[in-house]
Specification:
- The complex is a heterodimer of chains A (260) and B (137).
- With 260 residues, chain A is mainly alpha-helical.
- Chain A has one domain (37-259).
- Helix content of chain A is 86%, strand content 0%.
- In chain A, helix 2 (40-55) packs parallel to helix 6.
- The radius of gyration of chain A is 21 Å and the shape is globular.
- With 137 residues, chain B is an alpha/beta fold.
- Helix content of chain B is 39%, strand content 12%.
- Chain B contains 5 helices and 3 strands; from the N terminus they run βαααβαβα.
- Chain B has a 3-stranded parallel beta sheet with strand order 1-2-3, with helices on one face.
- In chain B, helix 1 crosses helix 2 (40-53) and helix 1 (24-36) packs parallel to helix 3 (69-81).
- Chain B is globular and about 45 Å long.
- The chains are: A mainly alpha (260), B alpha/beta (137).
């Protein structure tokens, strides 16, 4: 009976959590669509956020992309050759690696670097009463803090995932020449024939959805911090667990979208 | 005070801190950029002039933890003065600079930017009135 009660509590808490996240999402989407949210201060924050998330990370992101892409493409191409499935390499590269693994690896990198930072930043601001100070100056927290971070999250995810895909395809070009002895023309032809634009569109939409939630959830959990400094690590840890849960849910939903 | 431009409360106090991940310039500029849609160049010129009048030009690029108590107070005061038709309410100023003996510094700072706000109220405990000297008599 005790086990049943605990399970029920966990489920109720998870459902409440999901409902709160969706309600907060609705509020943020309404503000995203409201022209009044885009004042000069919000635009300045957006520029800073894009710099911190997409520009500052570029050297590390490019280096990691080259390493990941070469390893991934190398292993997959070698396996295809061993199994005698070389003719399917275009479909595997575009259908699996570019449209599925590329957004997933990008969102993991963004989450590790930016989501945790956003969660801690908002929690510290809440704990220091800086959010109260903003409200006392009649500054809307959603407009000033949430809207630019969400837009940045969506933009950065789409752009960085696209960059990752380009690095993947460049690695593919190099490795296909080494492993399959393939020319550039043949490689390009195979890629174009294997490209499904609906799959690319779904991948881009998925990137934007990833970007929305890996930014929104840390902000929401950061806002739950209290005046006690000890609440900061707790909110960051809970926020990050929820971000990873959200990534899994989005991945499953996107797979379902492809199936039906 | 008119209906078109009513006074707006602009708080200064230890409970209304500066944003710690922004420097003084950004903290103060934020008010004009958010409420009046001023450009970065406009606000920076305006805030720089305000800081200069308070003798605090050197703190423009510093963040909250790097400020002395007096510098922090000036930044908070100038931020409050950025509100249009500001009615500045200074809440227990000696919580911000507890080491000062009297209100000379506070009154000097208010005098320096007196044209930037409409009125100013200072709220403090009655047992602190000696610190305000002639202001309370």
């Amino acid at each position: 009976m005790h086990g049943l009660e605990s399970t029920g509590k966990v489920i109720i808490s998870a459902v409440d959590n999901l409902r709160d996240t969706l309600i907060f999402s609705g509020k943020v989407v309404r503000r995203l669509l409201h022209p009044a949210a885009y004042n000069r201060a919000t635009r300045n924050v957006l520029v800073n956020q894009i710099y911190f998330t997409s520009v500052q990370i570029l050297p590390v992101f490019l280096a990691l992309s080259v390493v990941f892409a070469s390893l991934l493409v190398g292993i997959v191409f070698q396996s295809l050759k061993t199994l005698g499935l070389a003719e399917y390499f275009g479909h595997v590269l575009m259908g699996l690696i570019v449209t599925e693994l590329s957004p997933l690896l990008t969102v993991l990198l963004i989450t590790l670097r930016s989501s945790s930072a956003i969660n801690a930043e908002i929690a510290v601001m809440k704990s220091n009463r800086e959010l109260t100070a903003l409200e006392m100056f009649r500054i809307d927290l959603v407009d000033y803090l949430v809207v630019p971070r969400i837009i940045n999250g969506m933009l950065s995810m789409v752009l960085l995932s696209s960059l990752f895909s380009i690095v993947l395809m460049a690695s593919g070009l190099l490795l296909s020449a080494l492993i399959f002895d393939m020319s550039v023309d043949v490689y390009t032809n195979i890629l174009l024939n294997s490209t499904s634009f609906s799959a690319i569109f779904i991948a881009l939409v998925k990137c934007a959805v990833y970007g929305f939630f890996v930014t929104l959830i840390p902000i929401r959990f950061g806002l739950r911090a209290t005046r006690e400094l000890t609440s900061i690590p707790i909110t960051v840890s809970r926020g990050m667990v929820n971000v990873f849960a959200a990534i899994l849910i989005i991945e499953v939903l996107s797979l379902l979208t492809r199936l039906f | 005070m008119t209906d078109a431009h009513p006074e707006q409360t602009a708080p200064v106090g230890a409970d209304v801190p500066l944003i710690s991940n922004q420097n003084v310039m950004m903290n103060i500029s934020l008010i004009k950029e958010y409420h009046e849609n001023w450009t970065k160049a406009q606000t920076q010129a305006f805030v720089s002039a305000g800081l200069e009048r308070l003798g605090m030009s050197h703190i423009a690029n510093r963040r909250n933890p790097a400020l002395t108590a007096e510098e922090r107070f000036c930044a908070m005061l100038l931020r409050a003065a950025m509100i249009r038709n500001a009615l500045i309410v200074i809440d227990r100023p000696f919580q911000i600079f507890p080491h000062l003996q009297d209100a000379t510094f506070l009154l000097g700072a208010l005098d320096g930017i007196s044209d930037l706000f409409m009125r100013c109220f200072i709220l403090d405990y009655c047992w602190m009135k000696d610190k305000y000297g002639a202001l309370c008599r």
